Amino acid sequence: MDAAFTPEQSAIRDTLRSALTRGGEAPPGQLWARLADELGLPGLALPEAYGGVGGGTVELALAFEEAGRALLPSPLLATAGLAAPLIAALGSEAQRAEHLPAVAGGTLTAALAVPGDGLATALALTGDNADGAWAGGGRAGGVQARPLPEGGGWVLYGEAGQVLDGHSAGLLLVAAHAGGFARARTLLFLVRGDADGVRRTRWTALDETRPQARVELRDARAELLGDDIVGAEVPGALAAVGRTAAALLAAEAAGAAAAALDRTVAYVREREQFGRPVGSFQAVKHRLADLYVHVQAARSAAYYAAWDPDGGGPLALAQCLEALRTVTGEAIQLHGGIGFTWEHEAHLYFKRAAADELLFGPVHRLRARAADAAGLFTGAATAGQATTGLATTGLATTGQAATGQATTGEAVAV
């Protein structure tokens, strides 16, 4: 496997970093529109037939890494990472032709709405999603789908309590029970964000750069995603999207950790104590060196997962979330008194670390899920299979670290 990026992939990263540096003070809506117009960001991984760029997971992961560095407040994850791939995988040709070009052009944002707080389980990141338990408990929970007579479509009743960018998405992709009883079949439905019977309330989230909302559906009109209710393999499609989303989130976390470290190194170079820069003290150098190792290991794992999401996505996400938590916590410490203030940006990176682990983790559950999938503790897999399934982090750390070192090799030279 060639671990080097192509010139086109490097150009995507450099161009996006430049655009985010120039447009950091723009309102989120204006910035998203500009990124869509100038860079085609929402359609980076969508087929050219639907107005996309035609890239893949690697290109999108590089964009996520830069978005993580800037803590970009955008619907990139909800739209390009979750909803659009599901529409492409399960939608009918008419649905793809209607919605994907609008997504690629930046005129339509979308959000995945699953009942309760089971997003990580719905995506099969922290548990098996095949039984549909994450979608609620039949008549008493979740979202219920009821068909209207004479082919008049569907109506949905229920609520989803933790929808990423659900407050502003123009299109909602809702997981609902069809049948009205426990263990009923879980399907995906398309609901317009402004449809009658839809009420959306934005939460005050821990990480305000990753907005969440409660979506209430009261007999809201909906359209089944796909042509055939029998042939819709929703759990499998969600799991596939979850593996790719894990790789994207890993790249985003690695980018955020790198930015937090860069800001910390810049601060300790300038901050003086006892007549010399804080960064010149040996104890500080040792702590920064440890953080540098965390960042490079996280970046390597994220790149490996981008090249092979099916083989390394969840494990890479676990390592990158752990690295982000460690780096941001140390960053606050090394910034001293100013690191604890609301006026400084250090708390924003720390909140991203905490919020992402609450949404998609925790780390130990991500690793436990990967171990179960590999059959490590059940005897279902051979020793070689178990090693292959769980060696992603180590392989990425030793195999691809050089790529990240070329970018930030001087970061800890204080």
Tell me what the structure shows.
Belongs to the acyl-CoA dehydrogenase family. Keywords: FAD, Flavoprotein, Oxidoreductase. Residues 247-371 form the Acyl-CoA dehydrogenase/oxidase C-terminal domain. Its cofactor is FAD. It comes from Streptomyces formicae. The structure is a single chain. By secondary structure, this protein is of the alpha+beta class. The protein has three domains: 7-76 and 88-104, Acyl-CoA dehydrogenase/oxidase, N-terminal domain (Butyryl-Coa Dehydrogenase, subunit A, domain 1, Orthogonal Bundle), CATH 1.10.540.10; 110-232, Butyryl-CoA Dehydrogenase, subunit A, domain 2; 235-408, Butyryl-CoA Dehydrogenase, subunit A, domain 3, CATH 1.20.140.10. It is built from 14 helices and nine strands. The chain has helices spanning 7-22, 28-39, 57-70, 76-90, 93-104, 119-122, 234-270, 282-307, 309-334, 346-360, 363-374, 383-390, 392-399, 401-408; strands at residues 110-113, 143-147, 154-164, 171-178, 185-192, 198-202, 212-224, 272-273, 276-277. The strands form two sheets. It has a five-stranded mixed β-barrel. A hairpin with a 2-residue loop joins strand 8 and strand 9. Helix 1 runs parallel beside helix 3 (57-70), helix 3 (57-70) crosses helix 7 (234-270) and helix 7 packs parallel to helix 9.
Which tags fit this structure?
Butyryl-CoA Dehydrogenase, subunit A, domain 2, 5-stranded mixed barrel, 14 helices, globular, oxidoreductase
Helix content: 40-55%
Counting helices, strands and paired strands, the structural category is alpha+beta
Low-confidence stretches: 380-414
Q: What is the CATH class of the largest domain? A: Mainly Alpha
CATH architectural designation of the largest domain: Up-down Bundle
Strand order of the largest sheet: 2-3-7-5-4
Major sheet: 5 strands, mixed, barrel
Please indicate the count of domains: 3
Give the amount of beta strand, in percent.
5-15%
